[in-house]
């Protein structure tokens, strides 16, 4: 019985379908089906019920999944630690990064990790959507948000960025500058729609206050929001670092400079340790060490939901 076939079975269950697992693993469906059928023959019971090309995990398959998931991961990790010279780290990592202004800094850290551990192959992909890590075979992800809600995942802070309210001088000349939270409610806010569908209409105002805002333009892309603001179409709520990057264009005016800025934090997110490979554990320790050494000071959100998971 091949451990790779058992891992394939785990991927199918985690991702929810054979097609999805094959897409993630870049595996031909015919090959995957043949291997699963061979595994069932060795086990002498069905892992899936099949009906009209639909596969549903069987009761026996669920029990087999529960019994083998942790055992297989511990076996593979232990085998690598014992057999690899000097505990050589190897394997393949899938890492999800958001479209952050510090994306290049993070990428350089990953490239340095690959230089240190040349036997590790890495797949990096960008997505604004907070994907399920286990279902999508993601080892580590970067999330951004003010706080971490209760979750089945582990999240380690890796930085932060202050947010502020901005508009152009032309907008102020035409509509006036809001001074209080009540005045802000009367202004046109360019709002962001999160991947979850939620519209960002409740904004932090100082440390302990929130203000409900409205406007005639809703976007799901921060770059487009910035462009609309530069055209004096309204007020936006964005990271300070992103606003500062517009210094060479029509400059943005920071509103409410007397109010303490809102902070959003960056998090390194991953499954609990028993689900981690040796390569994933080594990568996480490396990134956290780099952060502690000051390689990342601030982490800036782009097309990301404040919900971490």
Major β-sheet profile: 7 strands, mixed
CATH class category label of the largest domain? Alpha Beta
Q: From the 3D coordinates, which CATH architecture of the largest domain would you assign? A: 3-Layer(aba) Sandwich
List how many beta strands DSSP finds.
13
Which stretches of 5+ consecutive residues score pLDDT under 50?
297-309
Radius of gyration using CA atoms only: 24 Å
SS-based structural class?
A: alpha/beta
Mean pLDDT: 81
How many domains, as an integer? 3
How far the N terminus sits from the C terminus, by CA atoms, comes to 35 Å
Q: Give me the number of helical elements.
A: 10
CATH homologous superfamily descriptor of the largest domain: Periplasmic binding protein-like II
Helical proportion, percent range: 25-40%
Q: What gross morphology would you assign?
A: elongated
Estimate the strand proportion: 15-25%
CATH topology of the largest domain: D-Maltodextrin-Binding Protein, domain 2
Give the topology string: H per helix, E per strand: HHHEEHEHEEEHHEEEEHEHEEH
